[in-house]
Amino acid sequence: MFKLLFATFILLISTQAAMCDLTLSPLFSNGAVLQREMPVPVWGTATDGQKITVKFQKQTHSTIAEKGKWRVTLKPLKTGGKHTLSVSGEKTITRKNIQIGEVWICSGQSNMEQTVAESEHTSRKMLSSCNDVGLWLFNVPKPPMTGPLPKLTTHWTAAAPNTVAKFSGVGYFFARELRKSLKVPVGIINITFGGSYIALWMDGKTRRELAGTGVYANGRLYDAMVRPISSYAIRGVIWYQGESDADNSLRYKREFPAMIKLWRNDWGQSDLPFLFVQLPGFNFYKKDLSTKPQEQATWAELREVQSQTAAIVPNTAMVVTTDVGDPVLLHPPRKLEIGQRLALTARAMVYEQKVRYRSPIFKLLKINGSLAIVTFDNANDGLIARGNPVTGFTLAGKDGVFHNASATIKGNTVRISSPKVPRPVHVRYGWANYPNTNLFNKAGLPASPFRTDNIPFIKCSKCRSQTGDGTTKGRCNKCNAPCKPYLK
Known about the structure:
About 20% of the residues lie in helices and about 30% in strands. By secondary structure, it is of the alpha+beta class.
């Protein structure tokens, strides 16, 4: 009997202690990087009514815990390192080696998740030289797709061979480039999940508003990986996703801007920089790169939506990667170039450094008899073709049937013709799942695929997948049901 009473007493004491326990979010672990030059929220849990005092540098902020939570906001901080953060209530929590610099999130599906160790340019020599106490990594754990959501329990780790090897390749190479160019502490937070649809990264309200587009996935990744960190001050987001949604680019056209808006609202920054990767080339495991101009190209359709998003949504930018894909690898290993291009974009857009970061994009089409003349933006000093002749262009007349075309460069224009199209009306460039393209500007950046037509795509009336151009008649390539055209 005495043993039972004693055990009950110990349980009550430990339970009461747990209820009174003061906690600090794991995002504020030793080595955390705090965003400079903007207000920095700091938060945790405590029993109701407990007075919490936060001290950092010369700042002191106090609050009273309500509903088991507390939060204070530090005033904007100047660049620096090795500071101490103190949180006091019924006990004191101390975190050391806190640095102030630039914080970014890298997010998306498996190509953003793919690690440095799996990247093409990684070697033992490269990993052995990656130690950097000014570059810190944070991995948000992936949740199970069913059951209770896990709590955030990870912590910041400094760049070192063992931590870098297992981190996002694109995320690390991006952060490393920022570290080199800005010469300030850099923190990168990895929230990725392979195979994820974009709907998984949105909350219930946003998904309900998009219900007419056929959104069906729950927002579990948003609830488990985005919401817990959405108070953490950051400079911006880099995003690499879309492969899982390529069969539904019509839907993605609404989903992607909606997701960007949601995240900006969550972080309280209406102009939060959002930089993303246009899908590279992938030939669905086929080595044969010969394609028919009328062939189905769902990845080309998704790339078009990504281009439209960059043009319409303010303070976003897209990096073109059609030259670093692989026809048979869904996860192309050339992650270094992608990280570098994202960093170039951030350096120019966010940090106002004078670097060239924009790929050539379609500007204007002129028809001169049998010749189609395309003018590109972001190529004022001229275009180049890596290898001769220029490849990737197709032409169509008013019948909407496309044919492979020859092309020549003159300054920032390309002149396109085909003996099968004596009176051209429409031009396409790189319109394939794996584009056979070789057009670059003199900064070494590839031209973005485009089309000048608005020919409807076909969408299956049964399985709802997009299956090709509106000029194609017949049945769905996936389920063999009748198809009908849908305007883009």
